[in-house]
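Hi Y.,

Following your request, here is the sequence exactly as I used it, all 305 residues.
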Amino acid sequence: MPVLLPTLPAGYEGRPTTADDVTAIHRLVAACERALYGRVQADPGGIAADLDRPGLDPQRDTLLVHDRAGQLAARAWVNRRSEVDVHPAHRGRGLGTALLDWVEARARQAGSEGIVQTVPDDDTHAVALVRSRGYQPLVTAWQLEFAMPDEPTVPAPPAGLTVRPFRSGDGPAAHHLIEDAFDEWQPRRKSYEEWARHTVDRPAFAPALSALAHSGDQLIGAVMSLDLPEAGEGYIEQVAVHPDHRNQGIARLLLRHAFRAFHRQGRRTCTLWTHSDTGALALYLRVGMTVRHSSTVHRKALTDD
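Below is the corresponding structure, written out as tokens. Let me know if you'd prefer a different format.
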């Protein structure tokens, strides 16, 4: 299958991504986040994990766009879903449209029936662009925050339940628990290797700030945390409770453990993302979290008319 080349505005050149580009991509994404949110949420480990997705061919499924000075102006990747980022200094020049053209063409070439883009609701120009191209809202995602001016209190666990930080060797059990819990809404199960790249093998993973709940020898709940120094706040990557142990306050208990651990590390806020398919928004609101930002997952069908 030939490499699909993009049609870019004058003054820009495109090429595939290599492993050496992660730092530059992180700077690009960080600039986009600062412009939109006033803070950086991305980390190099998360970007590297996305570029190592199973089935993603960097030569065909990724694109970096540089200006005449050799500065990274935009990037895109596509593999079941896709991401497009344009540096704030290069917006309004047609790069977003060109990259969406390329993403859709590459997805068609790969035989995909549809393409998905997650767009921050605050980025009104990007929302208007994807909607003008036939993308339809699919799922709402929310970033929630928990303010911690004082150290959070942590209730005693129910009888028979123990809570402790993540330890070396806990990865396989945590992976199994989380994939089982997420089976209800995620489109596919992740292998241990893929899951680990986004969590326990990620440089930002914080085992001491991650809480596990056991009933006897059985792992029944987990909160997986990342320490993102550039963000200046705590971040929880995943929350999961075994289906047989839900509605018993276990998720709330584990969250409070993580909040307290982050507070003791000097963080005064803690955030996480959830989306409408999980049905977990009400839980986080009851814990005392509030919605900071929202994004919408948009999908476009690629079937030929």
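Residues 22-37 form the longest helix (16 residues).

Thanks again,
Q.
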